[in-house]
Amino acid sequence: MIRTRLHALPLVLLLVAASGCGLADLALGGGTRTMSSESMEPTIKRGATLPLRRTSAYVPHAGDLVLYRTPEGWSGSTAGEERVGRVIGLPGGTVRCCDAKGRLELDGKPLDEPYLAASPASALAFDVKVPDGRLWIMGDNRHIALDSRAYQDAPGGGTVRVADVTAVVDLPAR
């Protein structure tokens, strides 16, 4: 019996060590993160605990709330730093701001965004064609969020690689 327990000891130690550095969450497909800024308010309040569904092969959908790694060249952030944002533009699509009513346009159609902190959808005008394999990501609190709009001069034009999405935020339906 002691021999059987000793054989299981390395596995137990590995799981304990992995849980301490977050690897268990990744291996088990979930986890949580604490929201550290106001960039997603009013949808997600600063300090809220976010339930995550980890992914190694994210399939993008407009409107998804995601955890992503910042690209190389985003000034003021370290490449690979994780942030939370909303997927707005999909690969091959166009995102433009703004129409006469202050709404974003996706592929020429106005976007209804009841989750925004305030109107207009952006104080910064832009017209972007999202490259293949990349996403246009924005915060819900558009007047303070540092998102794709703030890095249009960086490599990738402010877009994020689909492969850099590490999790989907699973908020309860309202």
Please write the string of helix (H) and strand (E) elements.
Answer: HHEEEEEEEEEEE
Structural class of the secondary elements?
A: alpha+beta
Instruction: Report, as a whole number of angstroms, the end-to-end distance.
Output: 52 Å
Number of separate domains: 2
> Any guess at the CATH architecture of the largest domain?
Ribbon
Shape, per Cα inertia axes: globular
The oligomeric state of the chains shown is single chain
> How many beta-strand runs?
11
State the share of residues found in helices, binned by percent: 10-25%
Please state how the strands of the largest beta sheet are arranged side by side: 1-2-11-3-4-9-10
The CATH homologous superfamily of the largest domain: Umud Fragment, subunit A
- The CATH topology annotation of the largest domain reads as Umud Fragment, subunit A
Mean pLDDT: 85
Which class of the largest domain in CATH terms?
Mainly Beta
Q: List unreliable stretches of 5+ residues.
A: 4-28
In terms of DSSP E residues, the strand content is 25-35%
Largest sheet: 7 strands, antiparallel
Q: How many H/I helices? A: 2
In short:
The protein has 2 helices and 11 strands; from the N terminus they run H-H-E-E-E-E-E-E-E-E-E-E-E. By secondary structure, it is an alpha+beta fold.
